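Our preliminary data section would be incomplete without showing what the modeling component actually yields. Below, a chain of 465 amino acids is followed by its predicted structure, encoded as tokens that our downstream tools consume directly.
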Amino acid sequence: MNHIEGDNELPGYTPRAGSSVAPLNALAPGSEHTISLEDSNGHKWLLLSVKSRAPSPESWPVFCSGDLISGSVTLDILKSESSKAIVITVTAATTSVGQEGQGFLVIEKELWNPLMALPDGSVVPKLDKGHYTWPFKIALPNETEVLDRKEKKRFPLPPSFTERASPAYINYRITVIIKRGALRMNHTLTTDFAYIPITKPEFPSPMLQKACKENIPFVGPEDDPEGWYILPPVTVTGTLFGAKRGNVDFNLALAKPLSYARGSAMPLWLTFTGTDEQALDLLANHQAIRILLKRSLATGSDATSDHAGKHTDNFFVRTVTRAVFWPARDASTMGKRVLQGEVNLKKAFKQSVVFPRFSVRVSNFLSCLSEETHSPVCCLQLVIGSQYHLEVHPFEAVGFVHTSHVPGPLLTQPVNVTSFHATGIVMRSFAPPEYAEEIENLDNSVGLLENGNQRFYHHGGYGVS
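Predicted structure:
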């Protein structure tokens, strides 16, 4: 099946009874996917059909938290078959390139064996020539138990994670197995599927909610202190045009609650203060400001740790996008420059996840310069984590030279990326047209791999977000 290009806006799907998760869009029908096995004459004798949220039957099936996997298994056999059992399984595993996958989820449901009744109520020792269909329903659990650093812990099921050149993957599969007994090879039919945990940000401040709902510009921290998280002030000292020294203080603020949905904008507010008007104008130029959103991916036994081996071969950092800024309306005065900004969070971004063997941590680095469920307890030695940070780096302003070399970012702030928007709230972009175009240009120019170990391999996976 083809891969999914985007999964942030998916058709609805009815969750299992008793689930606390509401359907995303109860009116949307979703898709039905069918795969099959053929004999040498092209006769499709084994078929698996699955209903999912996916927008197209040609794409992978897609399921979210609380969904019920439902479908049918069909046999259309031209001669009698002495099978021992027909089983359907749902499995999931983490895989590091060059290593065997380690499973963290196994759900097995037996559809038929010679002692079980067929769908028509009859009991037969073997399957004669004919057409047979078994419907099935399998409830996906919300979490699973794994062994994380020698301790059993429960983790929410992680999202599917497959992308080109990634060092690690999270794969989900549905498999039909025709068991044929000793000395005979089983028949198997398998499809991968995408699993998306439903994660949403908490609600922003009432004033930010009002701006989102009424499509009006945000107000800054001075007028809405409840709505912004202000990072510690930083003083920048340098030489202007080789002639004089200048000092400028700046404050960076991020819209609370520091959690943002894919397919939205992360609001920023940047304030410069100082006595040198020329220095203020140089540093408060949007072209001098580099605020980068970076994603870190950690693998190995420490991947669930907040200190996940940032200087080892198991830690990978990638710049995914850059913030843009423009003058805030009626906010700049003598000795003060105020810029409004945002980070464009594309729908294709991976959501933040921390799970044994796989941790995708998305960090925003602000750079201010220029059923029957058997969930096995697994000993998972590789943890994968994906997280984001916002990082502020030294300014790159024409005519301004920093007094001393700054080896790293001036500020770093972790942020969280979720799979869906807060209910009724979409942090949309307010960038003026000329800056929105700049966002696209910047996004096309970043994407640099920034870890010391760049030994990436092609896994042959699919691009599931």
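The first helix runs from residue 206 to 214. Confidence is low (pLDDT under 50) at residues 1-28, 362-384, 442-465. Preliminary results of this kind motivate Aim 1 of the renewal.
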